[in-house]
């Protein structure tokens, strides 16, 4: 990280909201926070505590109205996106930031919010495997990879892909040696006890159980997105 | 997860403290929170916000004094452990909980806190690769693996090992099918962009940069632990 002094300071804005999937951003946060000469902003509409979909509560540090233009705009996902897909103020904040950001990025279903703000049309992008078809409804060129880079758009797949995604961004910003040092610092040498992390490798029973548990949410989300797309 | 109704409710107590490494527990949190019929407690000395070593702020939900006996006691790590290694009230809370817990567990340098509380002597256990020799000072049988199970002690290695660790615990508690469904839900199909996540695979330069950056902290920690061990 000896090149820190030679780089300009970089700002990364992490946009959070109620019912976020917390690991979508806490994984990347750990990587980003170890970058040299980088300032993180945990952005939310207000400074009130934000509760994740599973109850973990965070304190944002900067309200949207006081956010500087950030170099990296990062939007995580989670069940809470459904309420934001039609939230004009929220989407306008993303659009405004995207005009000056060096990178516009997302993990998991955060890409659906970027698409709802019109920021992914004409780009290749990805999302959580359960929502790939929903991202396509927006006219985005969907690529079912773990991390997709298309010019200044960088998107990651579901939840834990955020760690891979953040290491890719770390290398983009500060080079591979810095990214590798961070990887070693967080001992990111994954050894999943099962080979069930993708619909390509999980058993049919496991896939069915996840699909069934999420069916109602995915159906509601599809209706919201179809309505948004019809109005465009 | 169809067997939820047939299992008794399980409680998992996650112990947090100032200057914790947040991903040590937010990774496992995401897994634990998806377990059927399971209640999580985010335990801290008080209900004041807890700030991580890199500035992320969390709201605990239960102070130590109001914690029920939990089935799974889970202690994450981070730079903040140094202040807790000699904190009698903190260590007493761990000891008391361990008397009735079904599993006593840690990720990263959380195992040093368990050892300081006398809860790992006579067990095989692991920790962050930078602190393996410090765990051995406590007389623990150190095993440099990503997840180590020894009877009712389950310990994980550095930071991101928490996800592997939590999936192992999910399988212990509710069986492999449940753990695999959670793995698929969080799309845990890791694809690190570099092969630098362990001192066995990182380059010498990368290892040196991480060791140099942590040298002062590790030296201080060693002094604290040597003092503790000398007094036992």
TrEMBL record, chains A, B:
Stretches assigned to the DJ-1/PfpI domain: 12-171
SUPFAM superfamilies attached to this UniProt entry: Class I glutamine amidotransferase-like
Superkingdom to which the source organism belongs: Bacteria
InterPro entries associated with the record: Class_I_gatase-like, DJ-1/PfpI, INH-QAR
PANTHER family the record matches: ARAC-FAMILY TRANSCRIPTIONAL REGULATOR, DJ-1_PFPI DOMAIN-CONTAINING PROTEIN
Protein name: DJ-1/PfpI family protein
Organism: Calothrix parietina FACHB-288
């Amino acid at each position: 990280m000896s090149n820190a002094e030679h780089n300009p300071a970089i700002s990364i804005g992490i946009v959070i909201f109620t019912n976020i999937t917390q690991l979508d951003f806490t994984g990347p946060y750990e990587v980003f926070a170890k970058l040299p000469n980088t300032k993180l902003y945990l952005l939310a509409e207000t400074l009130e505590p934000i509760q994740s979909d599973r109850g973990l509560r965070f304190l944002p540090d900067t309200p949207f109205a006081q956010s500087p233009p950030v170099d990296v705009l990062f939007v995580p996902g989670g069940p809470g996106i459904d309420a934001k897909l039609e939230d004009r103020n929220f989407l306008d904040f993303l659009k405004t930031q995207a005009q000056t950001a060096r990178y516009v990025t997302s993990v998991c279903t955060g890409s659906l919010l970027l698409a709802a703000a019109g920021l992914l049309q004409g780009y290749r992008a990805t999302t959580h495997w359960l929502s790939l078809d929903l991202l396509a409804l927006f006219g985005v060129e969907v690529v079912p990879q773990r991390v997709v880079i298309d010019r200044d758009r960088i998107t990651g797949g579901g939840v834990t892909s955020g760690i891979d995604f953040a290491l890719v961004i770390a290398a983009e910003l500060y080079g591979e040696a810095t990214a590798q040092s961070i990887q070693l610092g967080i001992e990111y040498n994954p050894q999943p006890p099962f080979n069930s992390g993708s619909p390509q490798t999980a058993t049919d029973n496991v896939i069915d159980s996840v699909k069934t548990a999420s069916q109602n949410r995915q159906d509601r989300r599809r209706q919201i997105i179809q309505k948004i797309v019809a109005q465009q």
